Structure to design on (147 residues):
């Protein structure tokens, strides 16, 4: 187990870190599982994949203290499913929903298909808008889930 403030190894039963004196579970800079530095507000460690809260996690042989895990955490870069779906339905011929989701190449392709087919290709955007709202398309270009 590692201190979330300084990253030094800490006895799993310790109440405070002997290196920096911070209460175990305090701070938001290091993973308690591997000691890797983490981003402020991160939900999981990018090095070992361990959750940084007390939500469902693999049992590593010790009891993890409550560190303020927030089940309502949302990625600040998350895109709206409703906005993407409505953009797809109403402006899908122009690929606007794909530009919104970061799929620039697909958006440009939709514009070209719509122009070449004299507007018939706009059905592509309408169908994608419906699929987004139904949940079949549920991530943006970066793999972030739509909210």
């Amino acid at each position: 187990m590692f201190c979330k403030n300084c990253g030094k190894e800490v006895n799993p039963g310790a109440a405070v870190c002997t290196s920096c004196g911070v209460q175990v579970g305090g701070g938001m800079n290091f993973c308690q599982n591997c000691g890797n530095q983490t981003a402020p507000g991160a939900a999981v460690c990018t090095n070992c994949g361990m959750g940084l809260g007390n939500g469902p996690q693999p049992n590593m042989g010790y009891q993890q203290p409550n560190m303020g895990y927030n089940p309502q955490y949302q990625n600040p870069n998350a895109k709206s499913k409703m906005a993407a779906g409505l953009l797809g339905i109403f402006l899908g011929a122009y690929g606007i929903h794909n530009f919104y989701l970061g799929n620039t190449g697909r958006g440009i392709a939709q514009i070209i298909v719509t122009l070449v087919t004299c507007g018939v290709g706009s059905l592509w955007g309408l169908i994608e808008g419906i699929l987004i709202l139904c949940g079949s398309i549920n991530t943006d270009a970066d793999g972030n889930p739509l909210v």
Q: What stands out?
A: The CA atoms of residues 39 and 125 lie 37 Å apart.
